[in-house]
Write a structure and sequence with these properties.
heterodimer, A: about 190 residues, 5-stranded mixed beta sheet, two-stranded antiparallel sheet, 5 helices, about 35% helix, about 15% strand, disordered N terminus, B: alpha/beta, 3-stranded parallel beta sheet, 3 strands
């Protein structure tokens, strides 16, 4: 008769929550370190593996900027308070996106992203998603229109979620922008 | 982020992004990118620095028009953005 010990593959929910909480605290701590000491970020980049491409897609801009419709895309984890937060419990990240109405107030927005220190962006969302600044550009005549919606991702996307991003969620956002007749897009990391 | 940019460009929309790491951007090869030497969490300057934020965005628009070759990363010194913001404040 086999001895029955604790099943380490299936921790109790309370244990799992505890472990996730510790991991999330560690993620936030590492994020603060990377923000504070840029050489650490450079070392992280050197020791990490990224997808590599030999060519780049290209769309020729054949319109004056002053007539163009602009949309923003951020990977800074911004979203409306009423929207579900990005999933911080999955170590491989979250490849989903949130649609941000362009007339959203910064006070309606929050950031869910444990992999960078967003304490400054919490004070002014424009430093990762320049939702107010693009209206300044329109008013000054730099661009023609601000699209009625922008899009936000949480830029920690790894392993199998990369397939979802490439095959599903990124093309969905691209298709939505195309259906809005967007001419130009600015993408901001965090 | 470069993967999302590549998809949007593929759908016929001209895109430009801010790079936080020339090494990563060089591998993903988005069509157009600008490296300002920004710190993590601060791609578009700091809270309340409206002139800086607008300068960063105007540089992005400028290079969205001017970059002629796919996969180009433009390197802009932080002092150039500072001077732009100072000039805007003085005008």
């Amino acid at each position: 008769m086999a001895l029955l010990g604790p099943d380490l593959r299936s921790p109790r929910v309370s244990d799992r929550k505890c472990k996730l909480s510790l991991r999330q605290k560690k993620d936030k701590f590492v994020a603060k370190l990377l923000n504070k000491y840029p050489p650490l970020f450079n070392r992280w980049v050197e020791s990490s593996t990224f997808m590599e491409f030999r060519d780049s897609p290209w769309t020729q801009l054949d319109k004056d900027l002053s007539r163009c419709r602009l949309a923003l895309i951020t990977t800074g984890g911004a979203h409306l308070r009423r929207q579900p937060p990005f999933d911080m419990t999955d170590p491989a990240g979250d490849p989903t996106f949130r649609e941000i109405p362009s007339d959203a107030s910064p006070s309606d927005m929050v950031i869910t992203h444990n992999y960078y220190d967003h304490s400054d962006a919490d004070k002014d969302i424009n430093i990762v998603l320049p939702i107010e600044r693009v209206f300044d550009l329109k008013q000054a005549g730099d661009i023609g229109y601000v699209n009625h919606r922008h899009f936000s991702f949480m830029g920690h996307i790894l392993h199998h979620h990369l397939d979802t991003l490439i095959e599903d969620t990124a093309p969905k956002v691209a298709t939505a922008l195309k259906s809005d007749n967007v001419d130009i897009a600015i993408l901001t990391p965090a | 982020m470069g993967l999302i940019q590549r998809s949007i460009e593929d759908h016929g929309i001209a895109t430009i992004s801010i790079s936080l790491s020339k090494e990563i951007t060089g591998k993903i090869r988005p069509p157009r990118a600008v490296f300002f030497g920004s710190f993590l969490g601060h791609p578009i300057s700091y809270p309340g620095q409206v002139a800086h934020q607008l300068c960063v965005l105007r540089f992005l628009l400028k290079y969205l028009e001017e970059i002629p070759t796919p996969g180009t990363i433009i390197d802009i010194d932080a002092a150039v953005v500072d001077n732009c913001a100072a000039a805007a404040a003085g005008s």
